[in-house]
Amino acid sequence: MRTSIQVGTIIGIPIRLHFTFLFILLGIIWGFAIGPTWEYRIPLGLGDIEMDPFLRYSLSSIAAILFFFTLLLHEMSHSYIAMKFGTKIHSITLFFFGGLAMMDDIPRNPEKEWRIAIAGPAMSFAIGGVFILTYFGIKTLNLVIYEPVEILVFILGFFNVILAFFNLLPAFPMDGGRIFRAFLAKRMPFLKATKWAVLIGKIFAVIMAVGGFLANPFWFILTGEIVTGNILFPLLAMFLYIAATEEESATITFATLEGIKVKNVMRIERTSVLEDMPIAELASKMLEEKTAEYAVVNESGELKGFVTFEEIKKLTAEQRHFLRVSDVISPFNSVSDIILEEETAATEALKRMVRNKRNVLAVKGEVSGNFVGIITKRDLAIYIEMLKGSA
Ligand SMILES: [Zn+2]
Q1: Pick the CATH number of 262-390 from 2.60.40.1220, 3.40.1280.10, 3.10.580.10, 3.40.640.10
Q2: Ligand 1 mean position to 213 CA, how many Å?
Q3: Which of 44, 78, 147, 261 has minimal Cβ neighbours within 10 Å of its Cβ?
């Protein structure tokens, strides 16, 4: 399911918008337009100012879009530093609670990781500082600019400072959690450092869910007053908790596969079928060999694609009767997406499966260049479980 659309490209990085981002954008416009101006110690919206509704919502929309650009700048800073360390950035997606830069390989190097992690909050602090100084500059010099604009300038600054502080909480996988892990990883193995950082991140998430619902923590820090929290905190906490868990299991998987090569995991028997094989025949072959994935080759042994039980399952009895393997093979864009060399790291195979949304890849011999086997996600998963069990 496509949940995000590409809206542009900056310094070669595709910028995507997740559908949930639209909700937060509308929420921000609404918050700016009717948020209390004088009720608290700092202005939070144009709500207490008498003005034309059209102008109110227009200015709020402009401010909300500017806020979107400052979020983007935060993510761009992470990406920029990562690119300097040679990491490829696939895309930046803006969604519900902020942005996410999809990086090829987050460096497992503490020195690099903390620099990449701190770049975002540093940018948010800088932006926040510029906006807030502008606001106080206007006030100090007694310049008369349109009041709602001044207020929005202040709010943008304030939001960026909040964003920076919030991201610096040592709750993995937020930026602060990454910095914390890098700090630990200099003193202990990467996997152990990740487990600690994830644990702290989860504790933070639980505190945020419960505390944020009962009383707004930002508000308490700002003013010392206790006001009711809202549902956004438990939602954000849930998102953080899931992200922390995912990152932990990914790290465990990658650490477990350390040193394992494709040739250790690949299957060298029951690997391929001919493209003109009838589906009915393939179905009984699968059953007989208890195998759900095959590479498809032509008469001269050339790789044509793959066929898996997933495709066969969708066919009607009639279709199975007259279709051949070549009618159902899953197509591929480029050969490099589906062929690995046997000496390649198993982690690379896993990454490529995830990136290309494939459950099976072909393996060629390093010397011969011939097709020598296949590697499947299922085999990898079993292999990882066995490695864990034997550790
Ligand atoms: Zn960040």
Answers
A1: 3.10.580.10
A2: 24
A3: 147
